[in-house]
Write a structure and sequence with these properties.
Shape: globular
Order of helices and strands: HHHHH
Strand content: under 5%
Number of strands: 0
Radius of gyration: 12 Å
Number of helices: 5
Number of domains: 1
Largest sheet: none
Mean pLDDT: 93
Distance between the termini: 33 Å
Helix content: 55-70%
Low-confidence stretches: none
Length: 83
């Protein structure tokens, strides 16, 4: 899964994320996000941003935690207006 994210980031195609990750178990997603934060994979931030609006709350929170660990701006709930 991490290789997919890297491929989409390198190809500048972050929008591909949801069609491939939709059916992946939540625990696997959370572990990949932990790895991204631990390895400081800043280049994956655009893919994380594209992935965020499609996920359930727990994974969105983990994506924001990962973005924050990468020194990136966190995201608001996809249906709420930006402050």
């Amino acid at each position: 899964m991490l290789a997919w994210l890297a491929d989409w980031a390198a190809a500048e195609q972050p929008e591909c994320v949801w069609s491939r990750l939709e059916h992946i178990h939540r625990e696997i997603k959370l572990r990949v996000l932990e790895t991204i934060a631990h390895e400081q994979r800043v280049e994956l931030a655009p893919v994380l941003r594209a992935w965020f609006p499609h996920e359930v709350r727990a994974v969105r929170e983990a994506i924001n935690h990962t973005l924050q660990a990468l020194g990136q701006r966190t995201l608001s709930h996809p249906k709420s207006p930006r402050a």
